[in-house]
Specification:
This protein is α/β, with parallel strands linked by helices. The chain has ten helices and eight strands. α4 packs antiparallel against α5 and α5 crosses α7 (174-195).
Length: 268
Amino acid sequence: MNTMEAVAGSFQSKDGTPIGYLRLGNGPALVIVHASLYTSDSWLPVASLLADRFTCYLIDRRGRGRSGDALAYAIEREYEDIEGLLGIAGERANLLGHSFGAVCALGAASRQPVERLILYEPPLSVGGPVAGHDLLAYRDAIAVGDPDAALEIGYTRFAAIPEEQVRKMRAWPEWNDARALAWTWAREAAAVDRLGLSLDRYRAIQTPTLLLVGTKSAPRPLRDTTDALSRTLPNARILELSGQGHLANLRAPALVADRVREFLTLKI
């Protein structure tokens, strides 16, 4: 197989849901879990740059892309989906998660050991609920068929993005993709809030962990969560992505690939 050619695969998760993924590259395995409102394709720019050294497995989280869905949702099913792909990737696989995908990766890593763990800005409720009462307004906008209004609520109130920036985002190509997946953000935000304020559930993760954070990312719930995890995980360290925010995988893929490669090849 050409290391730059992505090959699609699928498997059945523990609850019977079909989960799709992309595989590309050669070398040690790296499973990559994408953010809310995106699919596995959002990490192809980074994976393509890593494919000369690593076999990258890019999961499509349930409810989007190449994956199916189930009637009932629980974040534990996301953990199981990741565990299923880790099983395909083989022993000593590495795991990378982005945003809500990093929350899911944390949950999977607490149940199934991985070789190394990379977390890019998981939004946890360390400073209070991420969605809180604003989740009701978000759900109401989805219910009346207005994903644009829902996204404005989510970006400004969940993700703490200034309104002026959100107005600019409406012209981005990613906005239309986010509209199609806007309904999934409600269940994910609710799942984060249900996890609560404590990070104690993650203290047992002994895996060497890299915490990526953009210098331009929101103080809450991104930078504060990263700081809190650095004090919670026994073997974690923070690395800042200079000049970047929450989407460096799309805006600066070479920078992200370099940092990932350095960490995965570092002798520990």
